[in-house]
Amino acid sequence: MSLNKSEAEIKSNSELKKYFKYLLSNSSAFESVLNLSDFEKDINSGLIFNSSIPISYGVGSSGALCAAIYKHYGKNSGSNETDLTELKRKLSLLESGFHGKSSGLDPLISYVNNPILVSGDDKLSLVNLQLDNFFENVAVFLIDTQQKGDTAPLVNDFLLKCESIDFRNRIVEELIPVTQQCIHCFCNNDIDNFFESIQILSSFQYQNFTNKIPNGYRVLWKTGLDSNKFWLKLCGSGGGGYLLGFTRNMEETEKFLSKMKFSYLQISPTSMR
Q1: Nearest one of 243, 247, 241, 237 to 199, comparing CA atoms
Q2: Could you count the other beta carbons within 10 Å of the beta carbon of residue 232?
Q3: Strand partners, 3
Q4: Contact assessment for residue 178 and residue 197, using Cβ atoms and an 8 Å cutoff
């Protein structure tokens, strides 16, 4: 966070003012979390949020903002908070102003600057990833759809679909178990089982979240599945932004993406630790 009154930062400051109005609209809930008076004073002095994270791309821009706000204006921040569950609750409350409903995980990860594992009993723990085997020719990459997603309506659409017993059963019986398996294998550097699981996960999303895959990228998604060369996954709620990709052969995948003129970025191991 920084103070700046230049014309180039007007939009950022304006968005912070809109967000502050949301906080004031439910001040009784936020007074115990933030020092609202200091936050308001700095906003009126030209406060901006300077971040390299693209907005509405599914990679946690709102989470990073909420983490920064809590770090600077949280009433208990800086007191070596160790209760991750309570931190998650507070940050979830702050991020609700952007999505209507938030798990709080994105801002929590930004705040502690470390991967977090959520166990089946909702226990939160910090994770020390050992990813050496994932960054040889095996690779993780991002594809830029060059479209912005709109989180709130996509989340609401998902929640509405969950009212269907059939859809909800597919989430509980198929999506959640394979997602947990992907996480387990990734955390344990188990490449073979990870790729078996990510293929199932990618196929599930292609079949059940079609409306969340940006136009122009469904064919690419299916190409990866059919060729068994790479697999894609939605970031955040989808609808635009980045697609997360996994491949056993980055050199071959890179040639394909370049030939088809898709914009991509390979992720380094240090960026995921």
Answers
A1: 247
A2: 26
A3: 47
A4: yes
- Amino acid in the structure at residue 231: W
Residue 59 tokens, joined: 């990679």
Asked whether the beta carbons of 148 and 56 are under 8 A apart, the reply is yes
Closest CA to 20 of 89, 66, 77, 64: 66
- Within 8 A by CB and 6+ apart from 271, the residues are none
Instruction: Determine the Cα–Cα distance for residues 185 and 196; give it in Å rounded to an integer.
Output: 10
Q: ∠ CA 205-102-134 to the nearest 5 degrees?
A: 50
Query: pLDDT for 127-163, tens place per residue?
Result: 888 776 666 678 899 999 988 888 788 888 999 999 9
pLDDT digits (tens, 9 = 90+) for 216-254: 899 999 999 999 999 999 998 889 889 999 999 999 999
For the chain, list the strands marked E by DSSP: 2-3, 47-48, 116-118, 124-126, 139-144, 230-234, 242-247, 263-266
Is residue 18 packed enough to be buried (19+ CB in 10 Å), middle (13-18) or exposed (0-12)?
Answer: exposed
Give residue for tokens 């949020």. Answer: 49
Residue with tokens 């990813």: 131
Q: Are 212 and 154 in contact (CB under 8 A)?
A: yes
Rounded to two decimals, what is the model's pTM? 0.81
Query: Are 153 and 265 spatial neighbours (Cβ–Cβ below 8 Å)?
Result: no
The continuous run of DSSP H or E covering 265 comes out as strand 263-266
From residue 156, how far is each of 187, 214, 259 by CA, in Å? 30, 17, 37
Look up residue 6 and give its two tokens: 């230049």
Residue 5 has pLDDT above 70, yes or no: no
Residue type, 155: V
